[in-house]
Amino acid sequence: MTMVMALKNVRVFFLALLFLSSSLLQVARCQVGSDVEPTEAVEEVGDLGIVGEDAQDFGDENFSPAPGVNTVCVFPKNGARVVPAGEETELLVGMKNDAGDSTLNVIAIKASIHLPFDHQLLVQNLTAQAFNNASVPASAQATFPYIFAVSKFLQAGTFDLVGTIIYEIDQNPYQSTFYNGTIEVVEAGNFLSIESVFLVTLAISLLVLLGAWIRGQIKNLSKKTKRAPKVEVGTKTTDASMDEWLQGTAYTQSLSSKSKKKK
């Protein structure tokens, strides 16, 4: 009994370890050029002062990332990164300010959708979310929400999402890419992805083929077990295949003469 309880405890321990490692892996996938552990960027800023959409025109100007600033992102309750078209999706952007003694002021978060095989082909510019009172002190970390929605007319499929956070340090603008990876866009209310439908269809086809193969094997076995039919001649039973070989011989003539005498 003690051995059984020990095995159960070991099994529970490994299951908990697998669950913890899978959660950390989902966060690590979102990390771009960062040495920060995913669990570090979880502090919430009290009043972010979100001022709405496109409060400032950021244009197409690009800035370089500030040295010592690390970013990480998490899709809460959406580890598969499935985005319903036309519906809001939330992600969290974590930042750690190791750039020196200056406070980091977050200006905005923006993102865009691209074709996965060529980032030069822009599919959609998503809403830019500006902040009025969001800062990260030196050697501190904070988490900022970003809510976006892809066009409801966007065809379901796999796309690349590029997310950027814009900030200032000592009145100098910088930006860091917190996510550059794939998302799965699905129709609103459709919980099955293209991969799921394909796998289900493939599984059903394999089951049908397996059933047909088993049925054919059973038929072949039943044919092999059948014996050759026997033909009754007089009071004796002879094999029909033997009659074909002896047809026209003296043996069959003697049998026919005996049958005539009996009559």
From TrEMBL:
Q: Where in the cell is it found?
A: Endoplasmic reticulum membrane
Q: Which InterPro entries match?
A: TRAP_alpha (IPR005595)
Keyword Transmembrane helix annotated: yes
Membrane topology field: Single-pass type I membrane protein
Cellular component terms (Gene Ontology): endoplasmic reticulum; endoplasmic reticulum membrane
Concerning Pfam families, the annotation shows: TRAP_alpha (PF03896)
- What does the UniProt keyword field contain? Calcium, Endoplasmic reticulum, Membrane, Signal, Transmembrane, Transmembrane helix
Signal peptide start and end residues:
1-30
Query: Which residues are listed as membrane-spanning?
Result: 196-214
Function of this protein? TRAP proteins are part of a complex whose function is to bind calcium to the ER membrane and thereby regulate the retention of ER resident proteins. May be involved in the recycling of the translocation apparatus after completion of the translocation process or may function as a membrane-bound chaperone facilitating folding of translocated proteins.
Q: How does it assemble?
A: Heterotetramer of TRAP-alpha, TRAP-beta, TRAP-delta and TRAP-gamma.
Q: Which family does it belong to?
A: Belongs to the TRAP-alpha family.
Q: What is known of its domains?
A: Shows a remarkable charge distribution with the N-terminus being highly negatively charged, and the cytoplasmic C-terminus positively charged.
What name goes with this protein? Translocon-associated protein subunit alpha
